[in-house]
Give the backbone structure.
Amino acid sequence: MGNNTISEELYSKAVELIPGGVNSPVRAFRSVGLHPRFIKSGSGCRVMDEDGNSFVDYVCSWGPLILGHAHPEVLEALALTMKDGTSFGAPTRREIEMAELIAELVPSIEMVRLVSSGTEATMSAIRLARGYTGRDKIVKFSGCYHGHSDGLLAKAGSGAATFSIPDSLGAPKSLVEQTIVLPYNDIESMGRCFEEFGSEIAAVIVEPVAGNMGVVCPVPGFLRGLRDICSKSGALLIFDEVISGFRVGLGGAQELYKVLPDLTCLGKIIGGGLPVGAFGGPRRIMELLAPVGGVYQAGTLSGNPLAVSAGLTTLKILKRDNPYQSLENKSARLADGLGKILSAKGLKFSINRVGSLLSVFFGVDKVNNYEDAGKADRSVFNSFFSNMLERGVYLAPSAFEAWFVSAAHLGADIEFTLECAEKSI
Ligand code: HOZ
């Protein structure tokens, strides 16, 4: 035990008390054959582990930290809010401000309900869609991940893909049978599905930029096609913008691709690093929620003052500073640099990127869906991952996850990352 690192010692203790030693599977380094680093602190684009190692961080808490770690304005807002108490289970002034700002910035949202996680947002949006349409079936796409509620754990991405459990044990068969799974980016199969089951389908849920099988961009016409088919059949189109919301632009993927869903799910960035999710849409649908309508949905800590304060401050900063062009430039430099390094070494690869969201797939030359992603060479990823970690770059420990660039990553951090990549391939 004497020569172990502090992270190793903490990990051996954690596995005795917490399943797998982690409170969310994606944090385990199992699929890359390592033990997780225990993180002590974060500042800007860097995290520090318990052993005193510092890393340029591209996990950024799996997406929320678009402004980087410990942003001073977010911390100040939290400190001020905290002085008045931490939770009331009653409405507070900032929740209105937050709803107003979300409705202003996200094109399809008129009304919004705050929850505490992305999982809650998608689960509630599906219930609302079923209540609104009076239908039971839903359509999702393989490799998309919409949180861990039963009916959405069918051919799921993220940790479910990383650990080869795309269909979870314990999800009732009768419920999963209501979920139709189709290939991403394949509008023909969607058309065929609707010819057969159209009148039974309540909703189609999709990540408009997929971020949980690595990053997969929508091919031209895919999102528009989904919109048209849903509108024709009366099914609701749900965009899961938990990752893409406020990430690929202020108005999310719906603004970028100019396709409006009926319902939008948000999370990650809107919590500024605290637990928040949200779902929203037009008044005619949203007012079916209790206490106005008959679709029940609730939460003790929904709209929690601290979470709203961190989220609202983050959204205000994004609106004020509009960092998206700068994020685009840095991320393009990173992706181009990585591409040049891989090409010079004669390796086959595909780098998928939308703004500050990107993925590198090794050993394949295009990735348009989950099947393509599954062909990527995981052993090359695993050695790349551990070499990068050794050199001070912290990537998500899975070939099926995205890299997140934040406003706190400076040009020098990108160049450092490229130097490390050059030596790590
Ligand atoms: N969407 C995140 C990873 N792709 C989820 C993070 C988690 O599962 O902990």
Remarks:
- The chain has a mean pLDDT of 96.
- The chain has two domains: 5-66+326-424, 72-321.
- The domain at 5-66+326-424 is CATH 3.90.1150.10 (Aspartate Aminotransferase, domain 1).
- The pocket of (4S)-4,5-diaminopentanoic acid is lined by residues 24, 26, 62, 145, 158-159, 212, 401 (CB under 6 Å).
